[in-house]
Amino acid sequence: MKGEEHLWGVLNDKLDMLSATNHMAEAIRVGESALEIAKRSFGAGDVRLALSYEKLGLLHEQNGNRSGAKAYLVNAHRFAGQDATRR
Q1: Of 80, 36, 41, nearest to 28 (Cα)?
Q2: Could you list the residue range(s) of the whole structural domain that residue 80 is in?
Q3: What is the pTM of this model?
């Protein structure tokens, strides 16, 4: 798990760099990989899972895909709410 947590962090850094340089298609691919790792590595109440959904949703929105963004953002909100209720 520790290795996957590290990989998740590395992928998120890469995603941020790609997004900042407007390489949206590649950023979305990296975001999808980070989300898959988050699903395997973190529990449903972990804020990192919610963050993965949120980042991917925002990337889709920035890329002009509002309908694609909505599903990710709804999941981000749902998982972030689970994290808040556990505190």
Answers
A1: 36
A2: 2-85
A3: 0.87
